[in-house]
Amino acid sequence: MAFPEDVLTSDEHVVAHLHPHWKALIRPVLVLVLAVAAVVVGFVLLPSGGAGAIAGWVIAAAALVAVVLFSLWPFLVWRTTHYLFTNERVLLQKGVFNRDRRDIPLSRINDHSMNQRFLERMLGCGTLTIESAGERGQSVLADIPGVEKIQTTLYELVEANHDKHSLGDGEMREILADMADGKPLREEQAKPAK
Fold this sequence. Notes:
This protein is α+β, with helices and mostly antiparallel strands. It contains six helices and seven strands; from the N terminus they run βααββββαββααα.
Protein backbone atom coordinates (compact mmCIF):
# COMPACT_ATOMS: atom_id res chain seq x y z
CA MET A 1 0.00 0.00 0.00
CA ALA A 2 3.03 2.28 0.13
CA PHE A 3 3.60 4.53 -2.83
CA PRO A 4 6.04 2.88 -5.24
CA GLU A 5 9.29 4.80 -5.55
CA ASP A 6 9.89 3.39 -9.04
CA VAL A 7 7.40 5.85 -10.57
CA LEU A 8 9.81 8.71 -9.86
CA THR A 9 12.31 9.92 -12.43
CA SER A 10 16.03 9.80 -11.66
CA ASP A 11 16.19 13.54 -10.80
CA GLU A 12 12.91 13.59 -8.91
CA HIS A 13 12.57 13.60 -5.13
CA VAL A 14 9.55 13.56 -2.85
CA VAL A 15 8.83 16.78 -0.99
CA ALA A 16 5.56 15.68 0.66
CA HIS A 17 3.67 12.38 0.69
CA LEU A 18 0.20 12.56 2.20
CA HIS A 19 -2.93 10.52 2.74
CA PRO A 20 -6.27 12.23 3.39
CA HIS A 21 -6.65 13.65 6.90
CA TRP A 22 -7.38 11.18 9.72
CA LYS A 23 -10.87 12.67 10.08
CA ALA A 24 -11.86 10.39 7.19
CA LEU A 25 -11.45 7.48 9.62
CA ILE A 26 -13.82 8.80 12.31
CA ARG A 27 -16.94 7.19 10.82
CA PRO A 28 -15.25 3.81 10.14
CA VAL A 29 -13.98 3.65 13.72
CA LEU A 30 -17.44 4.53 15.09
CA VAL A 31 -19.03 1.82 12.94
CA LEU A 32 -16.49 -0.71 14.22
CA VAL A 33 -17.11 0.24 17.86
CA LEU A 34 -20.90 0.13 17.42
CA ALA A 35 -20.74 -3.23 15.62
CA VAL A 36 -18.62 -4.78 18.37
CA ALA A 37 -20.94 -3.30 21.02
CA ALA A 38 -24.03 -4.68 19.24
CA VAL A 39 -22.52 -8.17 19.08
CA VAL A 40 -21.48 -8.12 22.74
CA VAL A 41 -24.85 -6.78 23.88
CA GLY A 42 -26.67 -9.32 21.69
CA PHE A 43 -24.79 -12.29 23.10
CA VAL A 44 -25.02 -11.02 26.69
CA LEU A 45 -28.70 -10.06 26.73
CA LEU A 46 -30.25 -12.64 24.41
CA PRO A 47 -31.06 -16.10 25.76
CA SER A 48 -28.40 -18.69 25.03
CA GLY A 49 -30.61 -21.28 23.38
CA GLY A 50 -32.96 -21.52 20.43
CA ALA A 51 -34.21 -18.24 18.95
CA GLY A 52 -31.87 -16.18 21.14
CA ALA A 53 -28.79 -17.91 19.74
CA ILE A 54 -30.04 -17.52 16.19
CA ALA A 55 -30.74 -13.82 16.81
CA GLY A 56 -27.23 -13.45 18.25
CA TRP A 57 -25.66 -14.97 15.13
CA VAL A 58 -27.83 -12.78 12.88
CA ILE A 59 -26.64 -9.71 14.80
CA ALA A 60 -23.02 -10.93 14.46
CA ALA A 61 -23.42 -11.48 10.71
CA ALA A 62 -25.00 -8.04 10.23
CA ALA A 63 -22.20 -6.48 12.29
CA LEU A 64 -19.58 -8.26 10.19
CA VAL A 65 -21.14 -6.97 6.96
CA ALA A 66 -21.34 -3.45 8.42
CA VAL A 67 -17.67 -3.59 9.50
CA VAL A 68 -16.50 -4.77 6.08
CA LEU A 69 -18.58 -2.21 4.16
CA PHE A 70 -18.33 0.80 6.47
CA SER A 71 -15.04 0.29 8.34
CA LEU A 72 -12.62 -1.92 6.43
CA TRP A 73 -13.41 -0.61 2.94
CA PRO A 74 -13.16 3.13 3.88
CA PHE A 75 -9.88 2.37 5.68
CA LEU A 76 -8.47 0.68 2.57
CA VAL A 77 -9.62 3.60 0.40
CA TRP A 78 -7.95 6.05 2.81
CA ARG A 79 -4.75 4.01 2.92
CA THR A 80 -4.48 3.66 -0.86
CA THR A 81 -5.14 7.34 -1.58
CA HIS A 82 -1.84 9.16 -2.07
CA TYR A 83 -1.09 12.83 -2.62
CA LEU A 84 2.55 13.06 -3.64
CA PHE A 85 4.33 16.39 -4.18
CA THR A 86 7.73 16.19 -5.85
CA ASN A 87 10.15 18.71 -7.28
CA GLU A 88 8.75 17.95 -10.77
CA ARG A 89 5.03 17.16 -10.41
CA VAL A 90 2.03 16.44 -8.25
CA LEU A 91 0.91 12.79 -8.34
CA LEU A 92 -2.58 11.84 -7.27
CA GLN A 93 -3.22 8.14 -6.87
CA LYS A 94 -6.16 6.19 -5.52
CA GLY A 95 -7.66 2.75 -5.80
CA VAL A 96 -7.83 -0.41 -3.73
CA PHE A 97 -8.05 -3.01 -6.51
CA ASN A 98 -7.88 -0.78 -9.56
CA ARG A 99 -5.47 2.14 -9.68
CA ASP A 100 -6.18 5.65 -10.90
CA ARG A 101 -3.18 7.98 -11.11
CA ARG A 102 -2.96 11.55 -12.33
CA ASP A 103 0.31 13.39 -12.83
CA ILE A 104 0.27 17.17 -12.93
CA PRO A 105 3.63 18.61 -14.03
CA LEU A 106 4.56 21.70 -12.03
CA SER A 107 5.07 23.61 -15.27
CA ARG A 108 1.38 23.14 -16.14
CA ILE A 109 -0.03 24.38 -12.83
CA ASN A 110 -1.77 27.70 -13.46
CA ASP A 111 -3.32 28.32 -10.09
CA HIS A 112 -3.97 26.68 -6.75
CA SER A 113 -6.34 27.62 -3.98
CA MET A 114 -7.13 26.43 -0.49
CA ASN A 115 -10.47 26.24 1.29
CA GLN A 116 -11.17 25.42 4.93
CA ARG A 117 -14.50 25.19 6.68
CA PHE A 118 -14.66 25.98 10.38
CA LEU A 119 -14.37 22.36 11.54
CA GLU A 120 -11.52 21.76 9.08
CA ARG A 121 -9.66 24.75 10.53
CA MET A 122 -10.06 23.23 13.98
CA LEU A 123 -8.74 19.86 12.76
CA GLY A 124 -5.94 21.34 10.61
CA CYS A 125 -7.08 20.15 7.21
CA GLY A 126 -8.83 21.51 4.14
CA THR A 127 -9.35 21.29 0.42
CA LEU A 128 -6.64 22.15 -2.09
CA THR A 129 -7.75 22.92 -5.64
CA ILE A 130 -5.10 22.77 -8.37
CA GLU A 131 -5.85 24.24 -11.78
CA SER A 132 -3.65 23.06 -14.60
CA ALA A 133 -3.43 23.55 -18.33
CA GLY A 134 -4.86 20.59 -20.17
CA GLU A 135 -8.04 18.66 -20.73
CA ARG A 136 -8.79 17.75 -17.12
CA GLY A 137 -8.31 21.29 -15.79
CA GLN A 138 -9.10 21.27 -12.11
CA SER A 139 -8.12 18.71 -9.46
CA VAL A 140 -9.76 18.92 -6.06
CA LEU A 141 -7.80 17.30 -3.23
CA ALA A 142 -10.13 16.94 -0.25
CA ASP A 143 -9.08 16.49 3.37
CA ILE A 144 -5.45 17.54 2.93
CA PRO A 145 -3.72 17.57 6.34
CA GLY A 146 -1.86 20.84 6.98
CA VAL A 147 -3.39 22.33 3.83
CA GLU A 148 -1.97 25.83 4.46
CA LYS A 149 1.60 24.51 4.62
CA ILE A 150 1.04 22.24 1.61
CA GLN A 151 -0.29 25.17 -0.45
CA THR A 152 2.81 27.19 0.44
CA THR A 153 5.02 24.22 -0.43
CA LEU A 154 3.23 23.85 -3.77
CA TYR A 155 3.77 27.56 -4.49
CA GLU A 156 7.49 27.19 -3.73
CA LEU A 157 7.75 24.10 -5.95
CA VAL A 158 6.01 25.83 -8.87
CA GLU A 159 8.23 28.90 -8.54
CA ALA A 160 11.42 26.81 -8.26
CA ASN A 161 10.37 24.82 -11.32
CA HIS A 162 9.69 28.02 -13.24
CA ASP A 163 13.06 29.48 -12.25
CA LYS A 164 14.83 26.26 -13.18
CA HIS A 165 13.33 26.27 -16.68
CA SER A 166 13.71 29.95 -17.53
CA LEU A 167 16.57 32.35 -18.06
CA GLY A 168 17.36 34.86 -15.37
CA ASP A 169 17.81 38.58 -16.05
CA GLY A 170 21.61 38.33 -15.95
CA GLU A 171 21.68 35.39 -18.36
CA MET A 172 19.36 37.19 -20.79
CA ARG A 173 21.46 40.38 -20.67
CA GLU A 174 24.60 38.36 -21.34
CA ILE A 175 23.03 36.63 -24.37
CA LEU A 176 21.76 39.94 -25.77
CA ALA A 177 25.16 41.59 -25.26
CA ASP A 178 26.92 38.69 -26.99
CA MET A 179 24.48 38.87 -29.90
CA ALA A 180 24.98 42.64 -30.19
CA ASP A 181 28.76 42.12 -30.33
CA GLY A 182 28.29 39.49 -33.05
CA LYS A 183 29.67 36.69 -30.91
CA PRO A 184 28.27 33.20 -31.49
CA LEU A 185 26.22 31.73 -28.69
CA ARG A 186 28.14 29.54 -26.30
CA GLU A 187 27.02 25.92 -26.12
CA GLU A 188 25.18 26.37 -22.79
CA GLN A 189 23.39 29.47 -24.14
CA ALA A 190 22.30 27.71 -27.32
CA LYS A 191 20.63 24.86 -25.46
CA PRO A 192 16.97 25.46 -24.66
CA ALA A 193 16.02 25.39 -21.00
CA LYS A 194 14.81 21.97 -19.80
